[in-house]
Structures are given as C-alpha cells and as structure tokens.
Amino acid sequence: MITLAPQPKERAILIALAFGEYTKEQVEEHLDELELLTDTAGALTVFKIMQERYRHDPAFYIGKGKAEEIAQLIELNDIQLIIFDDDLNPTQVRNLEKLFERKILDRSGLILDIFASHAKTREAKTQVELAQLQYMLPRLTRAWTHLSKQYGGIGTKGPGDTQIETDRRAIRTRISKLKENLRKIESQHTTRSASRKDFLTATLVGYTNAGKSTLLNRLTSSDVLAEDKLFATLDSTTRSFELSKGKTILLSDTVGFIRKLPHNLVASFKTTLNVVRDADIIIHVIDVTHDFYEDHIRVVE
After folding, report:
1. Could you tell me the residue range of the domain that residue 89 belongs to?
2. Which of 148, 154, 159, 284 is deepest in the core (most CB within 10 A)?
C-alpha cells in the first residue's frame, strides 16, 4: 500500500470593495460568503480585505496604491491565490497578475471552479464546460496554447494568424458543439416531462445551502445528497410521494442560487432550470436563521 500525503491547501486573500448601494455590513457578509465559497473550492482563507471607494479602479480594481500594499502582504505570508468578490475585466486581471505574480480569480471564476468539481452527470459536465469556455473566451492570454493542439489541425489556421486567434477559434468550435449537445439533452427532458403530465409537479427553489435537498429527503424518504456546503446539488432530482390518499405529487430539487451568479452559468443551466419553468407549483425554501435571508429572497426571485 502506498500512502499519499494530502496536498496542502492553497493560501488565499479575499478582497471586496464597498461602494455604490452596498453598506459596509453587506460587503462584510459578502466576504463571509466568499470565504465559504473558497473553503468549498478547497483553499484556505488567510486574510479578508475590504476597501471603501467611491468606485472601482479601471486598471487595478482596488487602486494601484492598495494593490502594492497587498503585494507586500502576499510576499510576507506565502499567499498563492488572490480572490476578488466582483468580476474583473481582462485589463485588471493582467495588471494584477503582473504586480502580484500570483493566480488571480474573481467570484465568477471561483463559482465555475466549484461547479466543475461538483459536476458528476454528463448533463452537468456539459453545462459547466460551456459556461467555463464562455467565461474564458474574452480573457484569453498566451497561456492557452494547449487548446490549439487539442482542437487544431488542417484547415484551422490562416496566414498571419496569431496563437490567440487560433485558440479563440478552437473555443468557439467547442462552444458550438456543447450547445448542440445541450439541445439534444433538452429534447430528452421534454420527452420525459411529457410522460409526467398526468401528475401534479412541484419544484423546490432557493438560495444555495438553504435546505432544499434536506426537505426533499424528509418529504419523500429519499437519500439525495444533502450537505452543509454551497452547491452540493447541481442536477435536478425528482421523487414522488403521496400527498393524500390516491393523490401523488412529483417533487423536484434544483441547483441553488447565489448573489452575483455568473450569467453564462445561468444560461448554460437552462435545461436543468426548465424543471422550474414546467412545474405546477414552485416552493421557495428560505433559511430564516440567516441574517441576510431577505437579501437571499430577492436574489432567488
């Protein structure tokens, strides 16, 4: 037997801006949620930094002075990962990577990484890969040379093409193929839904980790995965139970929502979320013990 030592967790700094309509207390809660996401992704939060500004800096997001201050913190504390609570544009990522010389992630990139690690079924993997590629496309740098090797070949290059242009073409080709695969999966869903038209259908929706899977298990005596972590469930799951004598209802669990959810991810999960659209009843599950449960209600609605 060979015992493998566990890999040490990446040490991370989390950064958020307090500006616009968000109060300091709200941004602190956003950072706490980002820490939960970071833990779910498998990294260790070492520092949480909040900066108050009237708006974000177009070049460094947090301003060059604050970025240089954080760069010193990174060196002194052996930080490998810097995560921002908002989406960064390609210019900001490039400038911050050059200054920090470390891996930079924004909130969307972190959520996509979590979804990729939790995707188990063909449908979930297809949806997550599509969202990842759509997220990566405008952020391409010269590091993406492996894509041309994977999807390139005769007929993919023209005179004067740069490597990035070739990579972009490879990604767009892959995106088209994934969209076609999802259309086929959606067609299969439609066929399955037609077979359930004689039953009353209900769908559980709610903020991530609100307790949807736990409620489904209690009502239907099932053993669907229910963990105290963000995005434990990605695929929709349907179970039946007897509402009253002779009256059967089909109850479905769905992927949870979260604030600042990447738009590409919502679009990619259209086939999964169709179970919400087609339901006779939508049951909104709310964790009222959470300090910001009213904000969670608004996000889901």
Report:
1. 11-112
2. 148
In sequence order, which residues have a C-beta less than 8 Å from that of residue 185 and are 6 or more positions away?
A: 122, 123, 126, 271
Residue 105: alpha-carbon gap to chain centroid: 12
**N- to C-terminal Cα separation, the chain:** 52
91 lies in a domain? yes
Last residue of a domain, one of 192, 215, 247: 192
Question: Which tens digit of pLDDT belongs to each residue from 232-247?
Answer: 666 678 888 887 777 8
C-alpha–C-alpha distance, residues 32 and 29, integer Å: 5
254, 110 Cβ separation under 8 angstroms? no
Reference 247, options 213, 206, 297, 202; nearest CA is 202
Closest CA to 86 of 230, 259, 206, 229: 259
DSSP bridge partners of 155: none
Do 106 and 145 reside in the same domain of the chain? no
Both tokens assigned to 167: 């990579």
Full DSSP string of 70-130:
HHHHHHHTT--EEEESSPPPHHHHHHHHHHH-SEEEEHHHHHHHHHHHH--SHHHHHHHHH
DSSP symbols for 15-69: EEEE-TT--HHHHHHHHHHHHHHHHHHT-EEEEEEEEE-SS-BTTTBS-HHHHHH
CATH code: domain of residue 46 = 3.40.50.11060
Question: Where is the domain boundary, 59, 77, 112?
Answer: 112
User: Number of folded domains in the chain?
Assistant: 3
Q: Do 220 and 289 share a domain, yes or no?
A: yes
The model carries a pTM of 0.78
Residue 5 lies in a domain: no
Same domain, 21 and 89: yes
For position 281, which CATH number holds? 3.40.50.300
φ and ψ at residue 284, rounded to 5 degrees:
-90, 110
Residue range 17-74, pLDDT digits in tens: 988 777 888 889 999 999 999 998 889 999 999 988 888 889 999 999 999 999 999 9
